[in-house]
From TrEMBL:
PANTHER family: PROTEIN FAM84B-RELATED, PROTEIN LRATD2. Residues 1-65 are annotated as: Disordered. Coiled coil: none annotated. It comes from Hucho hucho. Residues 110-205 form the LRAT domain. Pfam families: LRAT. Residues 50-65 have a biased composition (Basic and acidic residues). This is LRAT domain containing 2. Transmembrane segments: none annotated. PROSITE patterns: LRAT.
Length: 270
């Protein structure tokens, strides 16, 4: 079933139960968890590039970006933290593509962001170029072209795995250039870029056996006292849901959870 994931349909929060009337877990590790194997959309990277329409110049005026609606989160594999986005503790400043080029070194992970769109990830390989998964093909483009007018940031520290040597990261990326469609082993640009840097098979489609209890937990942080946890059997499933949250933003996720909680309370009265 692992290789048939592209056929699966996104399940929103109203498809799964929650016990909290506010839709949140108010204390660490004590709130209800939603156990799921597949909660994700059809994919981000195919949709994100079509927002402006096919005739829009990809180097048109740079889109403005405000991170105030980004959803902070922590990902655990069993008891180990493997990913953390904390806007207060991490340097998550975004830059124009020209300024970003001055900060990149070969092997860096770059994330391009725009409000209401899925984030797009790439590997900087030097000489002003990146390698990235774009529209079902691994491409080598100049960074300003790959950004499509979005602002960008270096995100080496989000995943907590030990990085491969920079030359190996670049080699991993360059060796995949030209791969497309059925040759691909990654569901989106983030999985591909992270695989290049860390070499973990968990980033690949079907890279893990889906047996037993869900070992991955996505803890979404709304405030110091409010959070919500989802559980997953595989890492790439979790990444797909995390990316969906990045695309719709914290406010929309909050509304979804609140709506689910209200539906559950209403149902309980019948």
């Amino acid at each position: 079933m692992g290789n048939q994931v592209d056929k699966l349909t996104h399940l929103s929060y109203d498809n799964v139960p929650t016990a909290d009337p506010n839709g949140f877990d108010t204390e660490d590790e004590l709130g209800p968890r939603i156990g799921v194997s597949y909660i994700f959309s059809a994919d981000g990277d195919e949709q994100e590039e079509r927002v402006d329409g096919p005739d829009k110049d990809q180097n048109d005026e740079e889109k403005q970006y405000d991170d105030c609606n980004e959803l902070e989160c922590v990902v655990h594999y069993r008891d180990e933290t493997v990913y953390e986005k904390n806007l207060k503790l991490s340097d998550m400043s975004t830059y124009s593509s020209e300024n970003l080029l001055n900060k990149c070194t070969p092997g860096d992970l770059v994330e391009f962001v725009a409000t209401g769109q899925y984030p797009h990830w790439a590997v900087y390989v030097g000489d002003f170029q990146v390698v990235h998964l774009h529209r079902a093909e691994i491409k080598n483009n100049f960074l300003p072209d790959a950004s499509q007018g979005k602002r960008g940031r270096i995100v080496n520290g989000l995943y907590k795995f030990v990085a491969l040597p920079a030359d190996v990261v670049v080699q991993n990326a360059m060796q995949q250039v030209g791969a497309r469609d059925r040759e691909l082993s990654w569901r989106n640009s983030e999985c591909f870029a992270a695989w290049c840097r860390f070499g973990k098979r968990e980033f690949k489609i079907g890279g893990e056996i889906r047996i037993g209890k869900q070992p991955y937990r996505l803890k979404m942080l709304f405030s110091e006292k409010q959070s919500h946890v989802l559980e997953f059997q595989s890492f790439d499933d979790l990444i797909m849901e995390k990316r969906r949250n990045d695309q719709i933003g914290r406010d929309a996720v909050t509304q979804e959870l609140t709506y689910v909680a209200l539906c559950c309370v209403t149902t309980a009265h019948f």
